[in-house]
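note to self — DONT lose this again. spent like an hour looking for the file last time. sequence + predicted structure for the chain T wanted, 478 res
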Amino acid sequence: MFSKIDRDTVARFNSPRKSKVIRRKFLLCVTLFKRKFCERSPKTRQLHMENITSISSDRQQYSGGRIASQQYRQSMAFCMEFDGLEEGVNRYDLLLLVKKLGKSAGFTPRMIHLLDYYMAFTRQEDWEEGSRPVVYQSLSRTALALGISERQVQKLEKALADVGAITWNDSGNHKRYGQRDPKTGRILYAFGVELTPLASLKSELENKLHEKQLIDATWMETKRQISWHRSQIRSLIALSQEEGRDVACHQRRYDEIAIQIRTHLDLATLRLLLERHRTLYSELVAVMGECTVKSKRPTQEPRIAKETHESSPRGELKFVHYESTTQQPFNKLNTISSTPSRFRDGVGTRCSANVPSRDCGISHVRIGSAINAASQRLRDHLPLHPEWPDIVNAASRIREDLGISQSGWGNACQTLGRTGAALCVLVTDRAAQRDYQPARQPAAYFQGMLNRAKSGNLHLHKSIFGLSKRNEVSQEIC
């Protein structure tokens, strides 16, 4: 049959009106058709059809169902042996552990949101012995409630299953449905997402939370140590610059490591940063120590020590200026070296003498007037029943907030005594916080008071009395 058709067709195309190209293409198509279908034997065609059938049957065999992985089998075994939560443990305690750990345990915010949503569908009796917490709400309703697609819900469920928080109790057609007993509220039958595996993670999550808390505490302690070293480095650089030393190299190195400490920095990076701060601090301490050895005068040391011993009262021994201006206790930090002797002897010893060269009305000021004149920021550092040493300590703490340097505080202690220096800080603090024409540069305002004290034009008692009276008037108005 095919040969007759081919002869008739070829004869028709032998007409001179048809082009040779068309005839060649047609003949090529006829040849390919014969090779593929006509020349193949019936046995070959049968084998070809059997191969196609076997491939389609294999595909139908593996469609649907869950992959029986080792993790899936273990989760199903735990669900079958589940005998309820421990006594005193609530289902939301498990969710709280997940929220506290978050990404450190493999839970993203969207996974936690879905787990929280599923947890609200369970009841406390579902987590008791003889029951299993199964969420049998349909996939479409969950997607509509969360505002996402069904596929996104499936991906989140798979992520929760990968970390071992959920599994599935599937029906034959993978539909999710169930029924509760109207009297007891227990689940009679349910097919859907099962939250029982979350109970098996309780001990593991608690251990991870403990490790996370230790790491976070170490991170915060490292950050505090870096902050302490930074304040000390800045003080030493400022003191060196005031004394005319060249610390440009140290300043550049400090600017390189003075980066903002944020939580994206891990603990290892933070420890490396702390080591660089310790190294720079040690070098500055060594520089200050060398300058101290060169500038010390042996004949002056006995005189300063004797003057301090004779002129300082016993009550002042606890309140040495060097100790009171330390922002963090040394026993809380693992510092590698102490403050240089020049820093202690040059500043702290002069202030501990408490022998002012100018009175400036300090003897007329009572402690009650000073407390009434103080700002709320300074009062926050005072005990319930403050004394003069407490006011001195409070003033030394807030001086850094005002930008007053260590050497400036030492000059004030030498000129006015520690009590007078504290009163100057008190007045400067009030001037910086007043509403009308506040002091924009408190350190310069403080230095101006010292200059007036040296020239005999400072009257501290009048300033204290005026501030105290102003506070009393404002309290009466309120």
